[in-house]
Amino acid sequence: MSDIPGVLEPEAVEEKPGNETGAVASPPVYLGVTRQEMTWAALAHISILVTVLLGLMTGGIVVVLGPIIPAIIWYAYRGKSAYVVDQARQATLFQVAGIVAILALAIVGAVVIAIGWVVSGLLVFVLVGLILLPVMLMVTLLWGVAMVGLPIAQMIYGCYAALETYNGRPFRYRWVADLIDRYLTQPGP
Description:
Layout: E1 29-30, E2 33-34, H1 35-46, H2 48-58, H3 68-76, H4 82-123, H5 129-166, H6 176-184
Antiparallel strand pairs: 1-2
């Protein structure tokens, strides 16, 4: 048993009769989840790095291809592993939600900032715009920080999820997991 809290130990796997080589019959199981399942669940979460890399390399143009990785894992493990399916589903929806949030922040922020600077510039002629200039500078800086910070925060959270699932602990993204639970518990048509 490990002295480190939260670290899972493999359950003992009995050898099959006639197996004199000492090899185990199957891979170790961690609380009902195999190492392979934990690895695929972690890969679904860590694929956020590919999404962020695609966003950086293409200016966000092909970032929508990033969530395809956990979606493929989700599809491939349907009917095979509830653990992998749950984690890959959450990873897919988390990445899609992040892309939508960044897109909304970019569009709304750009419109608000453009209108704000135009109004502030026009009002400079009547000296009221001088008061708005520092306000618009702060709004612009905050928007820039949000545009950089949101993908970084999403990447860190996704990497944390990958670490947790790789260690066999089921991970739940806030809001995303709740949304999935609400959808799955709705009565059918």
